[in-house]
Amino acid sequence: MASSKPLIEELDNTAPMQAENQQGNLSIIVRGFIDMFPLCVAVIPWGILCGSLAIQVGLSPWQAQAMSLFVFAGAAQLAGMQLIGLGSPAMPILSSTFVISSRHLLYSAVFQSYVKDLPLFKRFVFAFFLTDEMFALTNAYIAKHKRFCYVYAIASGIAFYVMWNLATLVGIVAGNNIENLQAFGLEFAIAATFIALVVPAIKDKPVFMSVLASGVSVLILELLAFEYALIASTFIGMFAGYYFAKKSSAKESATIKSEAKKRAVSVETKQELSDE
């Protein structure tokens, strides 16, 4: 009986810690939901457009909803459905959606160091819910708290997933009852969503130059009818950001060295005066 007492005391001590951790996780989940809410609202027209377009190109309601449930990639879904409506074969649809979704390779590279030690199932879950919106919010969380939080990332991703599928469902119903839904200009929600993601992230010159370079280059390449304009402009923006970040870092380093040299000269001058 005496040996069981320390075990009981240990269990009594761990119970409050577990409850505290659960409360902490709950607050993080709520924060993830709250932070994602504005983007959830912004994506509603996009989801409605996606659901209605699926019906108009000939998909059944079940097929249309399944695309959002299992594909969960707005831009790729819209492009794929437009090609389906044109009667395109499978390979052009797959290649187009791959090119559009290729930016997720960059997203996964950013988070690779944070999730590499997680169990395989958790990495699969993270990869499934990884969207532009979740990427932006999780990056902002890391910048603010100086750490990666898996619970926050998944909570924000699930919130967006639920809203996307609800909006798709509304679009499916609307597509069966309202003709020419595209006339309402719902596609502007796509541009608005990405503007809302990008603008808050522009906080220094390297990021600004990266956005500017990628934006200008994609416009030029689209006008030239370059097939891989999106991928090319992405890399152009990356190189521009890297160049200006390195230039800014070198300038800061030179400034620090100059100030250190001035302080050293000042100290030497004071010592000489004191010696005299």
Walk me through what this model shows:
The chain is mostly helical and 276 residues long. It folds into 2 domains: 4-201, no CATH class; 204-276, no CATH class. It is 83% helix and 0% strand. It contains 11 helices and no strands. The chain has helices at 4-56, 61-71, 74-85, 90-101, 103-115, 120-129, 132-145, 150-177, 188-198, 205-223, 229-275. Helix 1 (4-56) packs across helix 2, helix 3 (74-85) runs antiparallel to helix 4 (90-101) and helix 10 (205-223) runs antiparallel to helix 11. The mean pLDDT is 81.
Keywords:
single chain, 276 residues, mainly alpha, 0% strand
Q: Which helices and strands occur, and which strands form pairs?
A:
Elements: H1 4-56, H2 61-71, H3 74-85, H4 90-101, H5 103-115, H6 120-129, H7 132-145, H8 150-177, H9 188-198, H10 205-223, H11 229-275
Helix pairs in contact: 1-2, 1-3, 1-8, 1-9, 2-8, 3-4, 7-8, 10-11
Radius of gyration: 26 Å
Contiguous runs where pLDDT drops below 50 for at least 5 residues? none
Distance N to C terminus: 81 Å
Helix content: over 70%
Structural class: mainly alpha
Number of helices: 11
Strand content range? under 5%
Overall tally of structural domains: 2
From the spread of the alpha carbons, the general shape counts as: elongated
Listing every helix as H and every strand as E from the N terminus to the C terminus, the arrangement reads HHHHHHHHHHH
Beta-strand segment tally? 0
Biggest sheet features: none
- The overall pLDDT, averaged over residues, is 81
